Amino acid sequence: MDKSAFEDRTTITGPMHAPLKHDSAHKHVAGTADYIDDMPEPAGTLHAALGLTDRAHAEIVEVDLSAVAAVPGVVCVLTARDMPHSNDISPTHLHDEPVLADGRVQFHGQPAFAVIAETRDIARRAARLARITYRDLPTVIDVVDAMATGGEFVTPPLTLQRGDAEGALERSPRRLKGKMRIGGQEHFYLEGHIALAVPGEDDEMTVWVSTQHPSEIQRMVAQVLGVPVNAVTVNVRRMGGGFGGKETQGNQFAALAAVAARKLRRAVKFRPDRDDDMTATGKRHDFLVDYDVGFDDDGHILAVHANYAARCGFSADLSGPVTDRALFHADNAYFYPNVKLTSEPLKTNTVSNTAFRGFGGPQGMVGGERIIEEIAYALGKDPLNIRKLNFYGDGDSGRDVTPYHQKVEDNIIRRIVDELEASADYQARRAAIIEFNRSSRVIRKGIALTPVKFGISFTLTHLNQAGALVHIYTDGSIHLNHGGTEMGQGVYTKVAQVLADSFQIDVDRVKITATTTGKVPNTSATAASSGSDLNGMAAFDAARQIKERLVAFAAERWQTTAENVSFVPNHVKIGEELVPFAELIRQAYAARVQLSAAGFYATPKIHWDRATGRGTPFYYFAYGAAVSEVSIDTLTGEYLVDRVDVLHDVGRSLNPAIDLGQIEGGFVQGMGWLTTEELWWDEKGRLRTHAPSTYKIPLASDRPKIFNVRLAEWSQNVEKTIGRSKAVGEPPLMLPISVLEALSMAVASVADYRECPRLDTPATPERILMAVERLRQI
Amino acid sequence: MAQESGSIRFILNDTEVALSEVAPTATLLDYLRLEHRLTGTKEGCAEGDCGACTVLVGRLVRDGRGEEGLVYESVNACIRFIGSLNATHVVTVEHLAAKDGTLHPVQQAMVDFHGSQCGFCTPGFVMSLYGLWLTNDNPSRAAIEKALQGNLCRCTGYEPIIRAAEAAARERPSALFDPITRTREAVTARLEALRQTETIVIRKGEDCLILPVDATDLARVLAEHPDATIVAGSTDVGLWVTKQMRSLNPVIFIGGIAELQRIESSEAGLTIGAGVSYTAARDALSAAYPTLGCLIDRIGGDQIRNMGTIGGNIANGSPIGDSPPPLIALGATVTLRSKDSTRSLPLEDFFIAYGRQDRKPGEFVESVFVPALPAGEHFAAYKVTKRRDEDISALLGAFRISLDGDRVKTARIAFGGMAATPKRAKAVEAALIGQPWTEDTIRKAQAAFEADYQPITDWRATAAYRLLAAKNLLMRFFLESTGEIVQLQRFEEVA
Question: Shortest CB distance from B389 goes to which of A441, A635, A701?
């Protein structure tokens, strides 16, 4: 080994809490980070393309694939009947999601067949030659249509209830009802879906997939092929973005690649074109929220009754937990003395909506914040005043219980908001904006401060578990593997820091390896912001086991006690002796000490009873707040985000550089959702915004012109999380609700703030202008 | 008849390649990834919108003073056809780091400022930033944002990338290894040697691609192949191939024809050759006509503007092309040429109906002439989109009026996105002419938009919004003519 790397230093590189760079940063910028399409292809690799239907709801009368199969270079065409064992990839086991449409089309663009050919180009061209005959069936595209036609559910709805909402509404001095449309969102991961299946001997199948959930891909491939789960290995080194879109949506591509690979005994790669990807995979749910709120003349909320209806698409997928989470966050940071919240997970003839960063929580929260706005405009007050009146209180306040009966025990929202209000100079800027609006004819400004409280844990309690596998080799180098998947969020880097910190060795001695179902089994999706929390603890547990063995060995070999053995930078201190880490490992190996361990972690404390709507579904809450200032053009509805200030709570940050990146990136992604990203279906149920030419995610020139982001450095998790850190993936996505509300204020200025503009989202220039026009008529 | 030869020759990073078998619509991206396993260049969308496939293309360009120099521009490899690369230097992300692995300052800054998360868009960003770095050692935030209009990142929120760009610009160590700076002279010489001197024809089975050597030759070739597809920047035609899977054959590449790249300025106005890119035309148009520079800066991203041509934007007849409305308002004429004749017609008459233009078989758009704007006339063009930059217009309005005292003497108003073709607002014009230039006149004239346009509802906007915004743009034009500031500007400085 290279001993120069272990010179005596008092610190290691890359401990926990250090702003370490992303482990792949160098490779990213050099173009040498391999994504699945960049891997050398096995000899004879074939390529696949989807055959899409062009009806939203129809019986398939006849599928004529002769022209497809006749194209030179086409090797085979797969239909539902070619699935060896099962045509089902429903992640909920409701058997409502076929790999390929069988007899019935349930959304426009649903895949009905797959073409396997010598080249991707041939496969794509051939896929267009199918002749499918349909018998049209009635279509339900929109939430409103679904409600009007009886409202079939894809999964059972949820009710959260506490106190007597209806009675309290009746008794409230003031009462307001309203509706809000909240748009969906396409993930637009820069790397689209991709799977490469390589058949092995017997029934073995190895699949490289861009997925957040290797264990599910493994189960689905096994199920479709009809082989035991142990025959399938799923690998993923990195994704080019996931955001929830690769939690379940990779199943179809992996399953089809595997079926073709099994049938043809050749490697098969499936990389759908961007338009096919956007057409055939699910998105963030759009919602219609109906709310009824009772409050007093000061603005105290007395009761809330709200219904969250969601367009789920044709199947359940994850719509159950997504719509549940909308309800879990309908309160955001506010205490509702009496509350009734209901969900309606509605079936529609559209692609099945799925997980997306925040997982329903953002939609719930936008609805909750609209209620605050309504009260503020009704009373002629600054919405921030209404927020402060209604924040959850401390433990003895009697105002600390959520609609799901969990007590809020770690509340820091007041401190966050107070600090941000001062540091962003909110009050003076708001006064200046109101003054500006008095004299500005065309351009109007708005400002808003909105909070975020986000519950951390999978609400399906059993998913809150993780495993890690750690080996130390005889040269003292460490091999790290865990169930978390890397999609850019830096989980590999953070968990490597945990390991470096545990052993007190430089982080570059830790080899980060691709996630694979062969090393850590039965993993949960890297989702719900949980990646570092769960996998960090599992790796910590593996390190603990190995360290215990090393300590016992050292104590015995050096004739001392375990208390006298400690891990110091790149060394182990045994009594008074400083032994290089690698030297201890060499000796431990020679003494036949096991240098490998499987770590495991299960989140304590949490439980949830969905039937009664009671429990403690969340281990803790992450908090944050943002102030946004915008300008709008009241002639066209165009706008600019002039300035944003963020103060966000990540507990004691595992990696401040990565966490800042998650906050900045989450903010802009959430801002896109609420502003320019619009999904648009035509009358036939075709999604017409299925490419970046028509679906507009934020550009560099859309980001806040001034963007100040700070971590709440004083915060640390009250729960015993890894390094007392908090999850950061999802919570920042909701900070740009402040942008929406600032736009709303700018619009409200044209009617002297007397009316809540009731902006639906996404707040495109068109919606802004139309809201301006509406208010001008008042 | 000119001589024919049969290969496309260009330099790929360090290596000269000569391709004598290449399909007319083979893309640079597939060539890099599949033939050379240069997998740093990614496919994100295959339609020139996300920038993950960004590479630099260097070529010898004659500037306004007639001097020739080697210019590197960012382009989208996904919709760039191989046939358009003759006598160029293609630079991919793999070319940037030194042989010992030392990162280029642009790359190092991206690492140091945490500019990558998932990393998939990163090579494209590096290449766009590299293009900026080569030409600007102190870029403003406006200039950086403009250089990144054609690059989508879904992870970072861009802030760290902007910081990296600022830091990299300052980082120019004397011992620097910069592959383009280092080889500029040698590459110039090699490209001179590769310069096309005769017609290039490549046949492969049924497939045929042709690179005429000059405009006369183009007319001849087109007479022989009246059904051929003419490709300049391929920013539109590229999508016919990557998205619609259309087979185009034969394809005539005109990007190398020097005559079509000329911009001629006279007192009468500007003549812009059909092969002039948006980037090349920008400064001349900006200097001659107010707001056109800003408008061009909002067409596509840098990569698209470096490839796409004003001639192509006219010739493809799109109802949402951004150049026709302002050119129609300015009274532009288009010149069409064929083997036997040349004719000019007002640009507005070129657009007959949706998908139909007045271009006969064998004709090609040779140039567009834009009359100078007489002193004292007011002109402005406004683009309205869902997203400010790199978006296709929901509507685009161009306004030009002259006043006689306080009365409107002449008015030319044209819109895109409001009808099946770019179209004049003649009823609105009539409602203005002869009237006092006042807000009251504007209010009355606004109603006339309903006579001129019955726009459609689609994913970019509803009919109601289009009509309302069109009316309001007239108001904006009026208010601006009176000196009032009524537009949002992200930066005071115009990039």
Answer: A701
Per DSSP, helices labelled H in A529-607 are 531-557, 581-590
* ipTM rounded to 2 decimals: 0.97
Share of chain B above pLDDT 70, in %: 98
Q: Answer whether residue A163 is part of any domain.
A: no
Residue A278 belongs to some domain of the structure: no
Decide if pLDDT at B158 tops 60.
yes
**A190 → closest Cβ in B50, B157, B458:** B50
- Residue A90's SS3 state is coil
Cβ contacts (< 8 Å) between A187 and chain B: which residues?
A: 154
Contact A697, A689 (CB under 8 A): no
- By C-alpha distance, the chain A residue nearest B26 is A121
The Cα-based distances of A110 to A58, A367, B194 in angstroms read 11, 31, 49
Domain hosting residue A49, numbered range: 45-138+193-271
- Please state the rounded mean pLDDT for residues B211-231: 97
Is A178 inside any structural domain? no
Phi, psi of A316 (to 5 degrees): -75, -45
Q: How far is A247 from chain B (nearest CA, A)?
A: 16
Helix (H) or strand (E) holding A469: strand A465-472
Closest CA to A608 of A453, A458, A410, A401: A458
Contact B119 A33 (CB under 8 A): yes
Within this chain, do residues A502 and A643 fall inside the same structural domain, yes or no?
A: no
Quick check: is A177 in a domain? no
Q: What separation in angstroms does the CA of A316 have from each of A221, A345, A359?
A: 19, 8, 14
Integer Cα distance of A308 and A286 in angstroms: 10
Q: What is the mean pLDDT of residues A660-678?
A: 98
Tens digit of each residue's pLDDT (9 = 90 or more) over A295-348: 999 999 999 999 999 999 999 999 999 999 999 999 999 999 999 999 999 999
Q: Long-range CB contacts (< 8 A, 24+ apart) of A82-88?
A: A82/A259, A82/A263, A83/A224, A83/A255, A83/A259, A84/A224, A84/A225, A84/A226, A84/A259, A84/A262, A84/A263, A85/A223, A85/A224, A85/A225, A85/A226, A85/A227, A86/A223, A86/A224, A86/A226, A87/A224, A88/A223, A88/A224
Nearest CA in chain B to A241: B118
Phi first, then psi: what are they for B228, rounded to 5°?
-70, 155
Q: What is the DSSP string of B194-259?
A: H---SEEEEEETTEEEEE-SSHHHHHHHHHH-TTPEEESS-TTHHHHHHTT-----SEEE-TT-GG
Question: What domains lie within chain B, and their CATH numbers?
Answer: 4-94+182-258 (3.10.20.30), 103-176 (1.10.150.120), 262-481 (3.30.390.50)
Pick among A36, A115, A190 to test the B interface (most B CBs inside 10 A):
A190
Mean per-residue pLDDT over chain B, rounded: 95
Q: What mean pLDDT is reported for chain A?
A: 97
Instruction: Closest CB to A707: pick one of B108, B144, B159.
Output: B159
B385 contacts on A by Cβ (under 8 Å): 765
Cβ-proximal residues to B35 (8 Å cutoff; 6+ apart), any chain? none
pLDDT confidence of residue B79:
98
Number of H helices, E strands in chain B: 18, 21
CA-angle at A768, arms to A640 and A701, nearest 5°: 20
- Pairing verdict, β B207-211 and B68-76: unpaired
pLDDT per residue over A119-168, tens digit each? 999 999 999 999 999 999 999 999 999 999 988 999 999 999 999 999 99
Same domain, A616 and A719: yes
Which residues make beta-bridge pairs with B229? B251
Residue A10: band (very low, low, confident or very high) from pLDDT cuts 50, 70, 90:
confident
Regarding whether A92 and A219 lie in a shared domain, the answer is yes
Q: Would you say A507 and A536 are in contact if contact means Cβ atoms under 8 Å apart? A: no
CATH number of the domain encompassing residue A239? 3.90.1170.50
